[in-house]
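Let's sit down with a protein and look at its sequence and fold side by side. Once you have written the record down, we can walk along the chain together.
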Amino acid sequence: MKQLVGLSALALIISSTSGCGWVWGEDGYFRDRGSDYLNARQTAPIQVPANVEARRLDPLLPVPRNVADSRVSAEGFEVPRPQALQVSADASVFSLQKSGESRWLVAQRTPAQVWPVARQFFVDNGFEIVDERPQTGEFSSAWQRIEALSGPLAKRLSSRIAGIEADSETRVRVRIEPGVQRNTSEIFLVSVSRPTGSSADLEFPSRTGNASLEAALLDDMLASLARSGEQGGSVSLLAARDFDAPSRVSLSQDGNGNPVLNLGADFDRAWSGIGRALEMGDVRVDDLNRSLGVYYINLAEGAEKPDEEPGFFGRLFGSEADQEALDARAERYQVRLTSVGDSVQVTVEKDLNTVAPNDIARRILDLLQEHLG
């Protein structure tokens, strides 16, 4: 019915406008204006009276010289597509949060996107990274004196820190966790200090070591990350992928012979990795419930791409499938994540009380394993 109405509307439009030169003709309202600029000519600058003092008038939209070249033919000329605009990051992409003495950064980015740029900040400022675990979102620096860091940062830290003796060395640990909201991250930093030359292997405190030092580092990191976002700084896709890639991925069977995917990662990393693997595998996710550890997928449709919207005629003729048609051909299953000790098991179910057919479950788990490596 919707398509019939669309065709009737189009026929009415065509019949009412056919033969109307003022609509479609060379001088019509809907004529092709793609080559109009080829006929543009540059006129003489505006002349100001001799007794009037004025500033130089520069043209706001100067016509390029080669546009008015008579050798350029309008026939068959295709206007080049404009270059993509560089969109600056919003100032609220990174922000500083405080609660008592605790301070941390919040990023409107996934942990996988924040990990490489946060790590690069410390490397660029002279920190020696000795321990890093992308799967848990943590990395730690070696024992270093503040003076051993890069000049500008060392000077800023020396002027702000308190409670650290001059003859001491410090190490820091950074932890990046998924934020409360989806696709956000929280960056925590803690430090520990000891006298220079000491061999004591001190543990990191649970909350804060030296509040002044940590506050100064977070302020510098906030400024650096904000600049990186504004300048469109590149992000290492390999490092981003390593962030939530489990250390071990194996496919096995449970006691009933049902396939099970075992991930050597905590739940946060596993949840992020499975979501990424479903997107890379072109699997539609209709819904998800993180508290239950379930992705609700539909094998009959490809991964949803919000940027792809139907055009005018697509909406007019109803080319976008309605909900009834989608439901009629849907193949819905549930990908469930269950924490077991230090690892996570991934299974496929038809619904809460029914496991998926063995061949379907194995096909989905094989796809996830392929994109998790």
